Amino acid sequence: MGTIINAVAIVIATFIGMMFKKSLPQTLQKAIMIVLGLSLSILAIGWFLSDFLVLETDGFSTQYDLLIIISLVVGTLVGEKIDIDGRLKRFANGIEKRYNLPPIAQGFISGTLIFCIGAMAVLGAFQDGLHGDITTLLVKSVLDFITAMMLASVFGIGVMFAAVSVLIYQGSITIIASYAGMFLSNEMIVSMSMVGNILLVAMGLNFMEFTKIRVANMLPALLIPILYFVIIGLI
Known about the structure:
mainly alpha; 10 helices
């Protein structure tokens, strides 16, 4: 459901952008991004704490502290070594420079890269598949709505067809996650969720322009909890 809402938001925003034929004022764009970034960070912190804090008879305790740190460190090292962020940027730039794209094709390619290549697309679709939680995809839909309006004011109707890419890409992740959930223990899901929420906080900080964290390079951290519990189960 979250992916469908995301795709519909892109289609509607494309038509709005084509009607106005001009970008939103720079000051308004920045204000909206700051508010959305702040909202995403606060929501992600709340989601993280709901899993991280455990209520006991004598107060609160925490869980998976060391695993979270190890996952983020090891995952980021792997991501930086592979340079996921750099590869994605080079891939996007290469397509733009290699082909002399007509307006429709250019809007489609640009929209597909922006809407599909990013941590929020993966995390949101994964959460939807595992828990039926579409909150992240709803936030992404708002961001994509604004972006689609701006893109459509330049590239036109081609941006609308990027919604098909979103349906295929995020929908596939959601389906895979829903089936994989049967083989994942509660410990795996909770620890992965906490790591994912930390990545969402990092993205929120980027939206507010407080920093430029290469969140894509942190994506391998999501796999470390699975490896950890698989290894523990084999010992």
